[in-house]
Amino acid sequence: MIFLKKKRLKEKKQENLARARKGWEKGEEKVQHFPLVIYLEPTSICNLSCPMCPVAIGLGEYNYPEKLLSWELVEKMEEALEYGLRCFLSGGGEPFLHPDFLEIIRFIKKKELEIIFNTNATLITQRLAEKLVALQVDCISISIDAVDPAIYRKIRKGAEMDQVFDSINWLHQAKRKNNSNKPYLNMQFTLMKDNFNQLSQTISLAKKIGINHLVIEPLSSVFCFDHKYNEFFKQQYLKVEEKLIDELKDLKNQAEQLKMIFSSHYLDSRQKPEKCVQPWINFGIRTNGQVFLCCGTVEKMGELKAHSFSEVWNGLVYQAFRKAIAKAEYPEQCEHCLQEARSPWFNSELLG
């Protein structure tokens, strides 16, 4: 999932990338560069009630009063955005519920970052699809966790598959109309016991609806500290076993024959990272201003409402993470991620 190789970076972005690469290689604690990847959570609300979603179950980590990303927080990140390479407009909620979502995209696009976001795709209209193509959004990752409509309704509570297929069709129509290959379309399939019997059919569905990249994800164990989520996790989680790995490898081979990209943290978990890149390249903001590092930990890295970007980016929490990981002394909260290979390599291709 990289588009940057197709265009030349501005000099200041190239220089920042070089400093980031050097900082990661040397294991710097206090860094001299801006983050390469910025996460902005547009909303912490959703129009669906999926059982594996921390927002839907009211997880305390997402149950804060500020439900929409403010322009004040976006503007506090303006300098960092000037140097960044990739922006994920994703978090706990459905981004299209933010009334200024397209304006936020437009603001960030002017800074020349890749823009990627996750959506359940139930709110994309024909007109909205045309606007997304016109804005040249780089990648949209669409959550589709079943092939059978009945199973889909059970997991994506409040949605119908036909809604999603209409949205995807409108995106394809808008791309053809504008002779554009963007946005690149991902299909995100969260694997669990309820949909395991659908796994073998995911390639045919992805091909049918014109998906570029199929992603098979395990349920995240990061939120298992919450009793309600932990009960669901224990009932639904599929462990890494040879039979599952063999089936995923077969799907990957099928995808390659169709020139479709296929990835899965289940397959990644068979490899161990040399050194996680996230503390040197990632900076994420929730709608309440809390700063997070990545999807592999709920650690609070700082508070952007009370502090400047640089105070958090080179603050004590970030420095402690970098120091520990540089020594391969991963903090306890990283264990879930290391077991699932959920984050260590994510976006690492930006470092070259």
What features would you describe in this structure?
The chain folds into two domains: 37-114 and 268-351, TIM Barrel, CATH 3.20.20.70; 120-262, Alpha-Beta Barrel (TIM Barrel). Strand 8 and strand 9 (290-292) form a beta hairpin. It has 352 residues and is an alpha/beta fold. It is 38% helix and 13% strand. Helix 5 (126-134) packs across helix 7 (161-177). Strands 7-6-5-4-3-2-1-8-9-10 form a ten-stranded mixed beta sheet.
Layout of helices and strands, plus pairs?
Layout: H1 11-26, E1 37-40, H2 71-76, H3 78-83, E2 86-88, H4 101-109, E3 114-119, H5 126-134, E4 139-143, H6 149-155, H7 161-177, E5 184-191, H8 202-208, E6 213-218, H9 227-236, H10 242-257, E7 261-264, H11 265-268, H12 278-281, E8 282-285, E9 290-292, E10 300-303, H13 309-313, H14 316-326, H15 335-340
Parallel strand pairs: 1-2, 1-8, 2-3, 3-4, 4-5, 5-6, 6-7
Antiparallel strand pairs: 8-9, 9-10
